[in-house]
Fold:
Amino acid sequence: MLRVEANFQLGSLNTLRLECIAERYTLVSTTEELQEAVREARVCSSSINLLGAGSNLILNRYLPGMTIHMGLLGREILEDSADDLVVRLQAGEDWHETVLWTNAEGYFGLENLALIPGSVGAAPVQNIGAYGVEVAQLIERVHVVDSRSGDIWSLTAAECCFSYRNSVFKTSEGKHLIISAVDLRLSKRPVVNTSYPALREAVPDNCETPSDVLEAVIAVRQSKLPDPSLEPNVGSFFKNPIVDRVTAEHLQGEYPDMPQYPVDANTVKLSAAWMIDQLGWRGVQEFGVSVSEKHALVIINKSARYASEVIEFTYKISSAVFQEYGVSLDREPELIGID
Ligand code: EPU
Structure:
């Protein structure tokens, strides 16, 4: 039986620790409960908000409609061959615990994605990525519940339309799909990817097992990124902007030290952290919100109560970047609810 609570406080369920009241809230632990919650919301014509670990959300003061907290747990091996295997992970599983578990079992490929805060179900939505690997590279299928009908179906990786920090689940075609489980294809042969410069430096030469990479990624993240459980944050606050090649060349001429990463023949990714840092924002604090001392792309909530304070502060940062570099910064976490 589904337990629905009214006027539920979400302050402890989002890693930015913002105050937010959900009109209605329910925690679901099975696919059937998830479907029941969807049907219940439809009967009342309420909108649906999905809450995972709350590590990529900026919650406004009030969240109308039904907030469904994803609590589906479980791991299951589907296909198992000499070279690789497919593992089904339920959406409510903790991402980092999952990475540790796969590595300990000898299922390789997720090591570079260690310590990313969040749940398994959130990973495909923004196609989480770090140190040269994106989760899209490992996804076989994504299982969903349609929030309009309650129907269950699944998408292939191609149907998820993954790109940098993006997928069909962020678009109007896929926003109504609630991820209930994710199938990943992992290698049983040790594979490592140490192409990312900061990681390359952290992995000792002649010592390149998947466990070494896992350890190095954890060490690099702990040294460069603030821990959300100690300093409330949502990881990178802005995406790295992608610009056309001509714009990138022009910027490189004007700012010779600017890091640039070619995406394809026509587009180049710029470093949002570098631009913010160059403009002197690192460590700056206003409205109870600050730019992390450790990493200029991370915004820390020091004492702000509401999303409006975070938005006001970060708008000043993106305006300053636009004024200097002519480049727009898009927010990475999703802003939901009303002020
Ligand atoms: N940099 C600065 N100042 C800083 C931090 C970085 O100038 O305060 C410069 C670095 O020197 C480097 C460049 O910015 O030249 C890139 O820095 P970093 O390697 O830390 O990567 P990033 O582009 O800032 C992205 C992801 C992170 C991911 C890292 C490592 C995005 C939006 N962010 O950050 O993901 O961990 O690469 O792969 O793509 C997240 O999404 O929440 C996240 C933390």
Observations:
- The radius of gyration is 20 Å.
- The mean pLDDT is 96.
- The pocket of EPU is lined by residues 130-131, 196, 198, 224-225, 235-236, 239-240, 259, 271, 273-274, 277, 282, 295-297, 332 (CB under 6 Å).
